[in-house]
Every structure is written in structure tokens, then in C-alpha cells.
Amino acid sequence: MSQLGRFLELSVRSTDLLESLAFYKALGFCELTIGDAWSHRYAVVSDGELCIGLHDREHESPALTFVHPDVAQHARGMIDHGFELAYLHVDRDEFNRLGFTDPDGHMITIQEARTFSPPVDELDHSLCGEWFEITLPVKDATHTGRFWAPLAPVLLRMREEPTLHMRFDAAGVALGLSESIALAAPSLCFKCHDREALLAAIERHGMRHKPFPGFEGAFVEIVAPEGTRLYAFDQDFLGEPYIVEESGVYEAGDAFDP
């Protein structure tokens, strides 16, 4: 098992769960069955690949959330390896979890178990299309990449121009590090198969959006009620996997050696 465990969800704070749920359902996401781990109001939506956890509580948002079965022991190992934890909750009477940030302040959380059931049946893609990356805005992708390398050692793709962009396999989630100044917050990227249907749904439901927002050629940015940004593209902006030369040769799927 990786140091992160296994990816569970992108956790975001939502003060109006019904409004957020209506937004995602209008785009074709499905609501999943949740457990009783949290005392606060909580819901999860999925397109069959990506799960988004909607939390009605004060917490660092958004956060990349992973599951690791022995959080207490794992926390000791992480501290020994130099990770500075933002918080650590381990006790018999509570749901064990920990949190830490990357060099750009993005929150990563690890908890002891799943908090929702996976979909029983295979779900179709949403109107947004095929999800292919969670993208984090970073100041220096090489520097942040060195932080992520021990946690997500497989580099899936990399591009140097016009801005450096690295994509890692982070314990089951495609995680992008982008130096693009057009990206302001962690965002979701989709390869849309039916642009007209998506744009029609956006207009029909009065969703907040911006055509051609300037991020990697996206044709629309959609903003969820809780603030999550979803970008739709005609194709994956990194294209097909290819070899990248940078003080050595990296091929898509190879381990990243900073």
C-alpha cells in the first residue's frame, strides 16, 4: 500500500447540501449511500470515476482525502519521515484521521476507513464527460513535485511548455500540478463528449460559468454552489503519453526521481 493509502474523495465544504446536490445531479452525477462516521451533514456524488464529498462543517477545503487502515501507526511513520502534520485525531472513541499540506498549502487528509458505499452498478459519465485529472495550482511544479514524489512515485505525464505541468498517480487519482496563472484553486478536468448537451444544461439550470476561461484551452469553466471549479475540454490537454527529457528520460508510468 502506498503512503497515502487509497484515494477516496475530493472533500469540499458545502453550507447548502441541497443546492450542491441539485447542481451535481443536474450534470448527471449520482448521489451515493453514506455511512455514519461523521456527525455533520454529509453527502457524496460520483460520476463512476470521481467521488466528491460535500461536508457541512468548518474544515480546510478542498482537500484530497485518502483511506489508510491504521492511521495512528501510519502517522508515527510519516512524522519520522519528516512530514509536518496540520492535525492528528487518533483515539478509541473517534474516527481516526490526520491532515497535512503540500508546499502550496493544499490540504491532504488520511482517514481510517471509507465513509460511503461505492456505486453498486457502473455509472455513466456525467454531462461533463470523462474525468481525467484533479489539478492543483502551484508556484513551482518541480519543487512541489519533489514533495509529491515519495507519496505518488509514478509520473503519468509531463509537459514543459508553455507552462510546466506534471501528472502523478496519487494512490488511484490522477493528480496534476500546474503553473498556469489561469488556475486559482484545485479544480476538476473533464474530456467532454457532447459540448452542446453540457452547454444546454448549464443554461437550463442557470449555472455560474465562464466560456473559454483561459485554462489549458477549456471551452467552459463551471462553478458549483460551494465553489468547486469544473473545466470541460474537447480533449485531454496533455495529449497522448510521451517521453520527456529532463536530466534523464522519463516515460509515462515511470517512477519520478527528483
How would you describe what is shown here?
- The protein has 258 residues and is an alpha+beta fold.
- It has 2 domains: 6-111, 2,3-Dihydroxybiphenyl 1,2-Dioxygenase, domain 1 (Roll), CATH 3.10.180.10; 130-255, 2,3-Dihydroxybiphenyl 1,2-Dioxygenase, domain 1.
- It contains 4 helices and 19 strands.
- Strand 10 (154-159) and strand 11 form a beta hairpin.
- Mean pLDDT is 91; it is low at 243-250.
Can you give me a brief rundown of this structure?
The chain is an alpha+beta fold. 15% of the residues lie in helices and 35% in strands. It is globular and about 50 Å long.
Question: What order do the SSEs take from the amino end to the carboxyl end, as H and E?
Answer: EHEEEEHEEEEHEEEEHEEEEEE
- Structural category: alpha+beta
How far apart are the termini? Answer: 21 Å
In the sheet with the most strands, the strands line up as 14-15-16-13-9-12-11-10-19
- Reading off the top of the CATH hierarchy, the class of the largest domain is best stated as Alpha Beta
Tell how many strands the DSSP assignment holds. Answer: 19
The percent range for strand residues is 25-35%
**CATH homology group of the largest domain:** 2,3-Dihydroxybiphenyl 1,2-Dioxygenase, domain 1
Tell me, briefly, the overall form: globular
Tally of helical runs: 4
- Look up the CATH topology of the largest domain: 2,3-Dihydroxybiphenyl 1,2-Dioxygenase, domain 1
* CATH arch. level architecture of the largest domain: Roll
Instruction: Compute the CA-based radius of gyration.
Output: 18 Å
pLDDT < 50 stretches? 243-250
Portion in helices? 10-25%
